[in-house]
Amino acid sequence: MWKAFNQHASTHQYTFFSPSTGHATTPIDVTTFPEGRGLVRDGETSSLNTLGYSPIGFEQYVEILVRMSQEGVLSLGSPSGPKPFIVSVTGSAGEVGKCCGFLMKILEDADAVFPHPEGKKSRGLELMMEINLSCPNIPEKPPPAYDGAALTEYIDAIAEVKSSAQHASGKSLHVGIKTPPYTFHGQFQTLISALETSSRMNEGGCPISFITATNTLGSCLVLDPENKPALGSVTGEGIGGMAGDALHPLALGNVKTMRGLLDKSEYGDLRTIGIIGIGGVKDAAGFQRMRSVGADAVGVGTALGREGVEIFEKIAVGAGLKIQ
Fold this sequence. Notes:
Shape: globular
Radius of gyration: 20 Å
């Protein structure tokens, strides 16, 4: 968000659980874990969260990346070029457009926007932007990616900003959208129709470069051993978004269906849209499954929360990938 989200550990929480157990086994401890969670236990590879958005504002996030680039502390090199950072944003269509325009300025000249006090220059910073249209935990604000008109509003806002910025700088910004789990064909078709309409109506074609599929599944509830909500939430009901192992089959189905529909589109720019597959990937086998159904890249959420950054090396080694 352009402005920081007002997060409270008492109402924005997460827990791990096992579907075979059927309930959370550890209480939320906001003293030991001020982010609002309980202990990590073996076998509890699914998760539920009532989180909202980040308590750090958009400009502050971008400044952190620019400063790290200026200080030379980012590992940016790879045989294919600098490694990109994806900045995930949300808000109204106007606010998202504002974020897009700001990142275009950063790509043009990051040092002009955030000059270093010692004159150090940003080196090799590559940014992309993901629009989160899928968070299920914001009361009275359903995920826009379930609604065709709302989707079109966001896509049009990006098309307008990118068109004007390209004329000014000659540079472009890869923009993607993060979708919620779709459960029937009409929802997928709503997405494809919005993208195809954008391709047809905008002079520069569809402005979307990638889709991140999928976010957490909303309206889920995990109870504690006393059959009370395991999590605090804004509504007090403890209902939130589910991820991890329990989401994996649905995430695979979403990625495969989207890839198939994009590939069948009559619009060439839709056929080039990439997919970041995410949902329940915890090991090399899950990574390979996600790639096999059409994911160009694979994200990790619940397993990262359980195991830390070591999960990436674990997956890479297991999949026989070269670690860079």
